[in-house]
C-alpha cells in the first residue's frame, strides 16, 4: 500500500521547495546536535533562548547558500557527484558567513555575545554534521526511490565499453532516462591504467571479460560502445565477440552529433551491419580535388542515384562555378533537391537540377552547348544484374550507347575530364550488366587513345556499395522486419563492400589525378561471405536463426557469379601516390575498330533480337561467359566454333 501511494504522489509532491524545506530541517537538526556535542550533552549548560535566536541566523545563512548554488533544484532520485559538490559549496558559503558574523561581533562588540555570534566551535561542528547529513539524505532518498520504483522492474544488465568521459556521460544518460531500465554492471576499457579501478562505483574491467563467463554470471544483455576514437578493426572485434554470446551491441554517436552538446538516450542505437563491414577510413587528397573543381562547370549524370547523389554532396563543398545534376528519375531528383536545400542552401546558388535522359542526343547536346562543362562524372547506368539479364536491350541502350553519346559530346565540346563510374562486374563478366559496362570502358579508353591531349577519359572500378539502392543489405533488413525468411542465393557467395562516401571520394580523386586512359581500382580489402552478413544481421537484431527467423537458399540468379573480381586475369596493376588506389594496366584498343563494332551493335539492337545482341557483346568482350543464364547456349556454340582453322577474329584476340 505504501509503495502504491508513494508511486502515485512522489512526483507530485517532491518539488524543489519540498527539498529545500527538508534541507532546512536537516540544518536545524545539525545545529541541535552541534550544541549537544559542544556542551558534552549537558542540557543545563545550553542557553535555549539564545540558541533559538542563533538558529534563526544559522538558518538564514544556510538558506542563502542553498539559493546561491541552487542545491535543491536537482532531481533527488538522480543524485550524483555534482549534487554533492553543490551542497558542499552551499554549506561552505553558509559557514563562511557565520564565521564572518562571529568575527565582526567580536571586533565591534567584544563583550556582547548575541545571536549573531555563534560560537566558532558550534559553527565548525555544524558544518561537518550539515554536510554529512545533507549528502547522506540525498543518496538515501535515491536508494529508497530505486528500491520502490525500480525494484519491481526487470533490469537490463549492460556493460559500457569505454571508461572515459564519454563512457561516464553514457552511464548518467542511461540512469536519468525513466523510460529505460538499465543496470550498468561494469565498464570495459583498453587502457591498462583504468582497469580494476572504479568509475561512479562501477568496476572497470579489461576486454578479456567478454571471453570469460563474466557475461553469463552477470546476465549481461547489452554492450554499449562509448569510445570516441576507435579503429574499425577493433570495433569489429568487439562486436564479433559480443555476437558469440548473443549480446546486443549498441553504439554511442560521435560527440559532434550530440544534440546541443548533450547525449540523448534516443541517440544510443543498435549497431548496424554497416559498422561491421566498414574498413579504416581512406583519406584522399581533398586539397587536390578542390584545386581542380573550384570555379569549374561540372556535370553529374545519374545524380539521383546512390553514387551520383553522394558525388553531388561532396562536389558542393569544392565550390564549382556550376554544378549540373542530371537524372531522368523525377521523384528521386526532387528528393535530392529538397535534401540539399535543407542542408546546404547557401551552396546551391549555382546548382541546377535537370531532368534528362542520357540516351537523348538532342537533349544532351543542348545541355553541353548551354553549360560547356569542364568535368563530367558519369554515374548514370542500369546496374541490377537479374533485371538487365531479362532486359538486355535497355542495358545496352543506356550503359553502352548512353556512355558513347556523353563521351562523344565531351570530345566535341572540349571537356577536360570524363570520369566513368564502372563496376567490378565488368571484370570477366558473367552477365549482361557487367559486360555492357565493360564495353563502355573499352569505348572510352579507345576514345582517349584517339584524342590524346584533349579530353581525358578515366574509369573507376569498385565493388558493392553499402546501403545503395537495390543492394543486399536493405533487402535483408526488410526481410528481417517482415519476420523472414532471409533469402541468400548460395551459401558460398562472396562480395566486396565499401561505403558510399568512400566510393565517391575515389571517383573524385580519380577525376583529378587521372592522365587519361586509366582504370583506377580501389583496395577493397577482403571479400565478405554474404551468408555471414545475413547471420550477423539476425544476431544484431536480437533474433535467433532457426528459432525467430530462417535463412533459405534460392540458387544463383541469372548472370550471377559466386566471386567478384577487380581485375581481368590479363590485366595487372601499378601503384599510385595513394597505397589504397591502384591503376589497372589494360589492353589498348583501336578506336576505329571499336567504333565500327558499336555501329554493328546498334544495328543489331534495332532488331530487338536479344540473342543476337548478346552474341555481339560477347564478340566485343570475349571474356564474357554467361552464367546461369539463357545466353549460355551462345557460349556453347561460340566455343565449339572457336578453333584456329575457323579464323575467328575479335577485339579480345
Provide an overview of this structure.
With 653 residues, the chain is of the alpha/beta class. The protein folds into four domains: 2-150, no CATH class; 156-271, Rossmann fold (3-Layer(aba) Sandwich); 286-464 and 497-525 and 566-592, NAD(P)-binding Rossmann-like Domain (Rossmann fold, 3-Layer(aba) Sandwich), CATH 3.40.50; 603-646, no CATH class. A hairpin with a 2-residue loop joins strand 3 (198-199) and strand 4. Helix 13 runs parallel beside helix 15 (392-412). The protein is elongated and about 125 Å long.
Please list the strands of the largest sheet in the order they lie side by side. 10-9-8-11-12-13-18-22-21
Query: How can the largest sheet be summarized?
Result: 9 strands, mixed
Q: What's the number of helices?
A: 22
The proportion of residues forming helix, as a percent range, comes to: 40-55%
The name of the CATH superfamily of the largest domain reads NAD(P)-binding Rossmann-like Domain
Indicate the CATH architecture of the largest domain.
Answer: 3-Layer(aba) Sandwich
How far apart are the termini?
Answer: 91 Å
CATH fold type of the largest domain:
Rossmann fold
**Helix/strand/pairing class, anyone?**
alpha/beta
Given as residue ranges, the uncertain stretches (5+ residues, pLDDT < 50) are 5-13, 645-653
Average pLDDT figure: 81
What's the alpha carbon Rg, rounded to whole Å?
36 Å
Q: What characteristic shape results from the CA principal axes? A: elongated
Q: Bin the strand percentage.
A: 5-15%
How many independent structural domains?
A: 4
CATH class value of the largest domain:
Alpha Beta
Q: What's the β-strand tally? A: 22
Amino acid at each position: 500500500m505504501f509503495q502504491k501511494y508513494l508511486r502515485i504522489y512522489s512526483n507530485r509532491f517532491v518539488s524543489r521547495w519540498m527539498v529545500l524545506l527538508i534541507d532546512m530541517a536537516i540544518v536545524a537538526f545539525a545545529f541541535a546536535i552541534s550544541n549537544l556535542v559542544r556542551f558534552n550533552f549537558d542540557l543545563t549548560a545550553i542557553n535555549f533562548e539564545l540558541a533559538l535566536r542563533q538558529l534563526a541566523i544559522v538558518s538564514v545563512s544556510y538558506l542563502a547558500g542553498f539559493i546561491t548554488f541552487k542545491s535543491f533544484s536537482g532531481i533527488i532520485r538522480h543524485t550524483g557527484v555534482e549534487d554533492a559538490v553543490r551542497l558542499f559549496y552551499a554549506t561552505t558559503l553558509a559557514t563562511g558567513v557565520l564565521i564572518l558574523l562571529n568575527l565582526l561581533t567580536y571586533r565591534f562588540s567584544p563583550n556582547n555575545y548575541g545571536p549573531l555570534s555563534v560560537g566558532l566551535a558550534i559553527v565548525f561542528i555544524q558544518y561537518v554534521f550539515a554536510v554529512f547529513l545533507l549528502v547522506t539524505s540525498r543518496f538515501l532518498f535515491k536508494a529508497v526511490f530505486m528500491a520502490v520504483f525500480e525494484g519491481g522492474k526487470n533490469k537490463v544488465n549492460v556493460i559500457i565499453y569505454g571508461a572515459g568521459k564519454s563512457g561516464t556521460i553514457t552511464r548518467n544518460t542511461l540512469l536519468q532516462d525513466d523510460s529505460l531500465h538499465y543496470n550498468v554492471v561494469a565498464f570495459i576499457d583498453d587502457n591498462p591504467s583504468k582497469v580494476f579501478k572504479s568509475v561512479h562505483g562501477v568496476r572497470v574491467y579489461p576486454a578479456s571479460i567478454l571471453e570469460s563467463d563474466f557475461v553469463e554470471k552477470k546476465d549481461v544483455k547489452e554492450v554499449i560502445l562509448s569510445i570516441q576514437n576507435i579503429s574499425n578493426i577493433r570495433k569489429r572485434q568487439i562486436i564479433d565477440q559480443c555476437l558469440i554470446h548473443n549480446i546486443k551491441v549498441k553504439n554511442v554517436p560521435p560527440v559532434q552529433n550530440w544534440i546541443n552538446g548533450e547525449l540523448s538516450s534516443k541517440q544510443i542505437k543498435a549497431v548496424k551491419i554497416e559498422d561491421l563491414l566498414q574498413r579504416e577510413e581512406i583519406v584522399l587528397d581533398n586539397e587536390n580535388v578542390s584545386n581542380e573543381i573550384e570555379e569549374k562547370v561540372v556535370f553529374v549524370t545519374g545524380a539521383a542515384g546512390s553514387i551520383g547523389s553522394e558525388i553531388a554532396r561532396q562536389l558542393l563543398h569544392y565550390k564549382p562555378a556550376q554544378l549540373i545534376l542530371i537524372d531522368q528519375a523525377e521523384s528521386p531528383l526532387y528528393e535530392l533537391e529538397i535534401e540539399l536545400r535543407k542542408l546546404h542552401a547557401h551552396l546551391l546558388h549555382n546548382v541546377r537540377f535537370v531532368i534528362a535522359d542520357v540516351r537523348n542526343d538532342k537533349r544532351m547536346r543542348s545541355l553541353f552547348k548551354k553549360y560547356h562543362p569542364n568535368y563530367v562524372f558519369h554515374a548514370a547506368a542500369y546496374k541490377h544484374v537479374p533485371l538487365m539479364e531479362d532486359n538486355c536491350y535497355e542495358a545496352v541502350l543506356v550503359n553502352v550507347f548512353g556512355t558513347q553519346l556523353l563521351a562523344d559530346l565531351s570530345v566535341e565540346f572540349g571537356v577536360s575530364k570524363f570520369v566513368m563510374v564502372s563496376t567490378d562486374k565488368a571484370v570477366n563478366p558473367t552477365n549482361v550488366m557487367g559486360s555492357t559496362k565493360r564495353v563502355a570502358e573499352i569505348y572510352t579508353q579507345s576514345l582517349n587513345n584517339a584524342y590524346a591531349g584533349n579530353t581525358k577519359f578515366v574509369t573507376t572500378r569498385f565493388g558493392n556499395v553499402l546501403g545503395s539502392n537495390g543492394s543486399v543489405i536493405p533487402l535483408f533488413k526488410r526481410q528481417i522486419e517482415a519476420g523472414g525468411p532471409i533469402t541468400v542465393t548460395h551459401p558460398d557467395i562472396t562480395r566486396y563492400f565499401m561505403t558510399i562516401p568512400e566510393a565517391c571520394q575515389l571517383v573524385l580523386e580519380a577525376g583529378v589525378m587521372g592522365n587519361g586512359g586509366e582504370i583506377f581500382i580501389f583496395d577493397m580489402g577482403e571479400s565478405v561471405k554474404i551468408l555471414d552478413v545475413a547471420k550477423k544481421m539476425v544476431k544484431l537484431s536480437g533474433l535467433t536463426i532457426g528459432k525467430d527467423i530462417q535463412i533459405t537458399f534460392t540458387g544463383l540468379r541469372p548472370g550471377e557469379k559466386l566471386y567478384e573480381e577487380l581485375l581481368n586475369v590479363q590485366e595487372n596493376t601499378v601503384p599510385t601516390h595513394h597505397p589504397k588506389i591502384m591503376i589497372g594496366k589494360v589492353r589498348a584498343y583501336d578506336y576505329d575498330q571499336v567504333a565500327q563494332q558499336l555501329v554493328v551493335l546498334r544495328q543489331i539492337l534495332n532488331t530487338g533480337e536479344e540473342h543476337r545482341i548478346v552474341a555481339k557483346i560477347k564478340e566485343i568482350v570475349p571474356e564474357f561467359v554467361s552464367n546461369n543464364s539463357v545466353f549460355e547456349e551462345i557460349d556453347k556454340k561460340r566455343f565449339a566454333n572457336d578453333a584456329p582453322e575457323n579464323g575467328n577474329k575479335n577485339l579480345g584476340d
